[in-house]
Task: inverse folding
């Protein structure tokens, strides 16, 4: 059986503070068959220089249009059959791709899978008010972009991320997968390290809550309409 090949998509917007750490966690994977595509969403800091210092990372620039557009563009520019996402400030453990490769190879019927993540506090900052203390340093089954891995055929069937949503597009997409009755795999390993820091998008609580309310309403409506 041929080795699975991954496309790793990294949307970037003014991510210079943690971006190099993120890219290092990708290029040092213990798996060889993957490409990395970083989509620069109109950064005004040194993100472009950091990305372009890695010969193994494909660099794409676009005017600032948001993470959903960047993710869709990265996926459209990718070439492999399995797609993985990561945010510009998070980290993968070295065996992330090899673990998922083994899982997808042994489960050809599964198109979508997640693993566990560990949330950690970036050095030198206090716990933000929006972050619950009981989330830190715990291993949790995670459905954030940095954890999910899916086959291209699923993305083609479900469709792209909703570009009208700023923060809720990832939850909306996962709910669309769930509502389609797609079987989901859950790996027991901690494969993602999620960084809490002073500039997390999660800090924009009011907007996020409004968008999440909208995407859950959409999900309820889809389920009511399903015979």
Result:
């Amino acid at each position: 059986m041929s080795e699975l090949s991954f496309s790793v998509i990294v949307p970037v917007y003014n991510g210079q503070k943690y971006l190099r750490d993120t890219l290092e966690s990708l290029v040092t994977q213990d798996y060889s068959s993957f490409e990395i595509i970083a989509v620069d969403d109109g950064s005004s800091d040194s993100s472009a220089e950091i990305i372009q210092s890695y010969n193994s990372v494909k660099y794409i620039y676009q005017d600032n249009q948001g993470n959903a557009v960047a993710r869709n563009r990265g996926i459209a520019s990718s070439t492999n059959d399995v797609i993985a996402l990561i945010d510009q400030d998070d980290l993968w453990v070295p065996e992330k791709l090899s673990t998922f490769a083994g899982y997808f190879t042994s489960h050809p019927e599964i198109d979508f899978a997640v693993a566990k993540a560990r949330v950690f506090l970036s050095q030198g900052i206090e716990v933000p008010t929006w972050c619950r203390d009981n989330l830190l340093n715990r291993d949790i089954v995670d459905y954030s972009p940095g954890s999910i891995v899916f086959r291209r055929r699923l993305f083609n069937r479900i469709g792209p991320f909703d570009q009208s949503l700023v923060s809720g597009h990832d939850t909306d997409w996962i709910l669309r997968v769930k509502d389609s009755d797609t079987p989901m795999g859950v790996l027991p390993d901690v494969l993602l390290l999620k960084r809490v820091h002073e500039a997390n998008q999660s800090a924009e609580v009011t907007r996020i809550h409004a968008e999440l309310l909208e995407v859950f309403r959409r999900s309820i409506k889809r389920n009511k309409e399903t015979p």
The chain has one domain: 6-225. Helices lie at 16-27, 47-52, 67-76, 96-106, 152-158, 169-179, 205-225.
